[in-house]
Amino acid sequence: MAYPPPTPPTDAITWRDLELHRQQEQIALYELEQRLMRHWEPYERRIDSLESVIDQQRGAKALVYFLIGSNLLAIVGFMLSASK
């Protein structure tokens, strides 16, 4: 059983059509990206402020460890000098 040959489409697609479609897709993707960025912007600011607080807490923790360590060294140094 032989099938008839496929018939070409009546609407031939040109390179111009493809380029126009590509440009329309780029515009649509850009607009979607902009909408998403505007939507997530408040959350981004909150995350940035939380990261800042976390960094401050890490700095405070490091300072506390430094002060404890330096005091312990001073105590050990005092004890060693007192034992001589």
Q: What proportion of the residues form beta strands (DSSP E)?
A: under 5%
Mean pLDDT: 89
Structural class estimated from helices and strands: mainly alpha
What proportion of the residues is helical, as a percent range?
over 70%
Concise synopsis of the structure shown:
The protein is mainly α and 84 residues long. The chain has one helix and no strands. The protein has one helix spanning 15-83.
Characterization of the model:
- This protein is mainly alpha-helical and 84 residues long.
- The chain contains one helix and no strands.
- It has one helix at 15-83.
- The chain starts with 14 loop residues before the first helix and ends with a helix.
Give the topology.
Layout: H1 15-83
Keywords:
84 residues, mainly alpha, 1 helix
